[in-house]
Amino acid sequence: MTQAELKTTAITRQTIDTYNPATEEVYKTYYLHTKQEAEALIEASHQAFQSWRKTSLEERATIIKKIAELLRRDKADLAQMMAKQMGKPLALGEGEAEQCAAICEYTAEHGIDALADEEREISTGKKGIITYQPEGVILGMQPWNFPLYQCIRYSIAVIMAGNTTVFKHDESCFETAEAIQKIYEEAGLPKGVFSCLFVDGETADELIAHQHVRGVTFTGSASIGRLIAKISAEHLKKNVLELGGSDAYIVLRDADIDLAVKTCVQGRVMNSGQTCIAAKRFIIEAPVYDEFRDKYVAAMKKITYGDPTNSENNMGPLARVDLRDKLHHQVQESVMKGATCLCGGEIPDQKGAYYPATVLENIQAGSPAYDDELFGPVAALFKVADEAEAIELANAHRYGLGGGIFSKDEKRAIRIAREELDTGMVNINGYAGPQANMPFGGVKESGYGREHGGFGMKEFVNVKSLFIA
Ligand SMILES: O=CCCCC(=O)O
With a threshold of 0.90, does the pTM exceed it? Predict the structure, then answer.
């Protein structure tokens, strides 16, 4: 049932008000499914699976290619929605739609080969065949920071593999969830292959136990991820978790400092800093620390914020006032514990969940800027004696999502990236967002499993061995 249909049913429904973070005014009131309605959607998804799993890889690829076209067609409308739901600047929203279209195209183009049967010689007969068979209904739960991308990266992969999915978006983004379903169905995806669940997080967690849910994929905080892993384990459901990050960018003494400064500013303030793979900690070798810090602070002071529909602003607001307040509290606590605030660090006196680009140094262990994730435009600078100390500090964090290295010696940087950094992704002399043809995911408390890049398609398949005698 769509939001419009839910609004007109006879029963009294639970509703949720969501707010435009730029104005703090109510943006939408959403109507929730009851748990029984959500279970009926899972049943319907299971029914749809019986025919979807029989479609050929070519048929699926054709629909997914069409989805890419429609995402491009609708990118301006989708960007407007995201600006109002969570404050994303319009240009960034359109870029996100383009990125999603690229994921669809890559999946359509490479999925047929990636999921094709493989043959092996076996000692006991003619041959072995490895076949990647879909498993059934996958429950997706995704957050608000990339309202389109987070949903599309998982759902396109599971749909290409022949699964169906029920999707619980963050409550603030139910409108985007519905827009995605509309696009998928206009492209030719049969009803029931992708369905939105308008439920709260607690109900979604309970649905993991449903007999037809075969797997769960979640992006969000480590604390909720831990809970989902626990419930999934109890019911023996496979899960993919993309959790937090506190990515360290190491600036070695032989780095191009101007490039490092420019990239590390961009990597910190993009999406108002609300990105799991944002550059969050900056670990700088002592001989270049002062130069990097002074240039970095000067550049952060130039970052503007304001109405996300005005293209002159570098950043919009944060997604919600309570999230902005939490970030500010983390900054204040870090300062109380010894950090120095070099710029920003004050809540502006205006409506909206705004927060300025902020830089901290002299950060002490035991403070939020050292130990936790800062999900907003706050940079944490650390001075270290040498490469070894930089690697030790980068790896000391409980998260292991991404990271970066700046050095003019590319071979050295690649060695450190490959052999030393305990993360799932590393940027060398740059800051790349997720790429359709590269896997995405982390280690340690950043979770497990991989999205796109050919790997996401194989997260929820039954890798079946056939032994031909
Ligand atoms: O928050 C994690 C997803 C990152 C998406 C992006 O940077 O485009």
Answer: yes
